[in-house]
């Protein structure tokens, strides 16, 4: 569990954000939209970790009873919904968690869509055959920039990650991605990246991209449970766009998963439209939201759909 100041509009529909932005005296009361919140879960895993440890589902209502009086908002985050990435026992436990939280008075809200690719194709050429001819032609054009890049695969724990200048360069590119993103939750520290990059026992691998000797991008992934988990990325703008680095890195990751005989490439949250164009499938998550004030709890039940942006996107996509 962890505590953070949570912006209530983080996952709100863009139309709702625009309406609120036009409300009078917004600057005076906008701070009230940031609430000190207790989260049950973690920001560094795809799903809540209690699934792996099989913590009894009724533990969560006990947490709500113990901590609900101290926080106006408690969120049990990232509960999977019949995920193809998990075993049947894990999915059954997740549903038991949802049921226990709902019975404890939580509002169940759909979370973000997790992108993944099942590695059931023999090579990239067959993978590209799955997209439309027009999209395939566009991707092939973007991938031509790969020939101008120096791409290295570096295991975490390698000597280069104990060099302070390397760590500063990596962090600067992480901050560049953070600055251009419109969806923020956590802001990771230099110490965090130093720890994960220097950890040689985690199964981490970094794909590093250089142009004419200059670092223009990196992508930190982890191999676990027969899957390649795409976790963090750093990009230098405008170089990354000029070299179509996002698209190149996608196919570099797929090739790595193929070479390693992995079953899935898990591409993470955010940018579902782009990932769908790249051939990803999606699986949903849920959050169990406990609101201490009964009046506000009633209101949250009425408007919770306005905070399910990815669900609306998936339904519109069909």
| Shape designation | globular
Main sheet characteristics: 10 strands, mixed
**On the 0-100 scale, what is the average pLDDT?**
87
Which strand-content bin applies to the residues? Answer: 25-35%
Could you spell the SSE succession in H and E letters?
A: EHHEHHEHEHHEHHEEEHHEHEHH
Distance between the termini: 35 Å
Figure out the total of helices.
14
The overall strand count is: 10
Structural class: alpha+beta
Going across the biggest sheet, name each strand in turn. Answer: 1-2-3-10-4-9-8-7-6-5
Residue runs with pLDDT of under 50 for 5 or more positions? none
Radius of gyration: 21 Å
Percent helix range: 25-40%
Task: Furnish the topology, listing elements before pairings.
Elements: E1 2-7, H1 14-21, H2 26-29, E2 34-40, H3 50-53, H4 59-67, E3 73-80, H5 88-103, E4 107-118, H6 124-128, H7 133-142, E5 150-155, H8 164-180, H9 190-197, E6 204-211, E7 214-224, E8 227-235, H10 239-242, H11 245-260, E9 264-268, H12 272-277, E10 281-291, H13 294-303, H14 309-317
Parallel strand pairs: 2-3, 8-9
Antiparallel strand pairs: 1-2, 3-10, 4-9, 4-10, 5-6, 6-7, 7-8
Could you explain how this protein is built, in words?
- This protein has 318 residues and is an alpha+beta fold.
- Helix content is 40%, strand content 26%.
- It contains 14 helices and ten strands.
- It has helices at 14-21, 26-29, 50-53, 59-67, 88-103, 124-128, 133-142, 164-180, 190-197, 239-242, 245-260, 272-277, 294-303, 309-317; strands spanning 2-7, 34-40, 73-80, 107-118, 150-155, 204-211, 214-224, 227-235, 264-268, 281-291.
- It has a ten-stranded mixed β-sheet with strand order 1-2-3-10-4-9-8-7-6-5.
- A hairpin with a 2-residue loop joins strand 6 and strand 7 (214-224).
- The mean pLDDT is 87.
């Amino acid at each position: 569990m962890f505590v953070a100041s949570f912006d209530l509009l983080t996952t709100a529909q863009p139309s709702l954000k625009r309406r609120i932005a036009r409300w009078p005296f917004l600057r005076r009361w906008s701070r009230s939209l940031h609430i000190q919140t207790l989260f049950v879960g973690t920001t560094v895993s795809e799903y809540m970790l209690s699934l792996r440890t099989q913590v009894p589902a009724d533990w969560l209502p006990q947490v709500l009873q113990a901590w609900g009086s101290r926080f106006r908002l408690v969120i049990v985050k990232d509960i999977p919904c019949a995920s193809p990435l998990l075993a049947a026992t894990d999915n059954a436990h997740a549903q038991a968690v949802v049921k226990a939280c709902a019975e404890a008075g939580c509002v169940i809200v759909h979370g973000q869509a997790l992108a993944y690719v099942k590695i059931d194709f023999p090579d990239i050429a067959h993978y590209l055959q799955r997209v439309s001819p027009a999209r395939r032609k566009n991707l092939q054009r973007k991938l031509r920039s790969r020939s101008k890049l120096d791409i290295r695969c570096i295991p975490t724990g390698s000597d280069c990650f104990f060099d302070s200048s390397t760590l500063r360069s990596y962090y600067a590119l992480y901050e560049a991605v953070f600055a251009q993103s419109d969806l923020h939750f956590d802001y990771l520290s230099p110490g965090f990246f130093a720890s994960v990059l220097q950890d040689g026992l985690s199964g981490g691998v970094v794909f590093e991209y250089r142009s004419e000797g200059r670092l223009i991008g990196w992508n930190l992934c982890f191999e676990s449970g027969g899957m390649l988990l795409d976790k963090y990325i750093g990009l230098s703008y405008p170089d990354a766009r000029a070299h179509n680095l996002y698209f190149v890195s996608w196919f570099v990751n797929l090739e790595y998963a193929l070479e390693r005989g992995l079953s899935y490439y898990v591409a993470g949250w955010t940018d579902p439209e782009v990932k769908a164009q790249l051939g990803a499938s999606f699986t949903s998550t849920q959050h169990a939201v406990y609101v201490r004030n009964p009046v506000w709890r009633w209101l949250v039940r009425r408007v919770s759909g306005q905070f399910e942006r990815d669900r609306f996107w998936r339904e519109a996509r069909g």
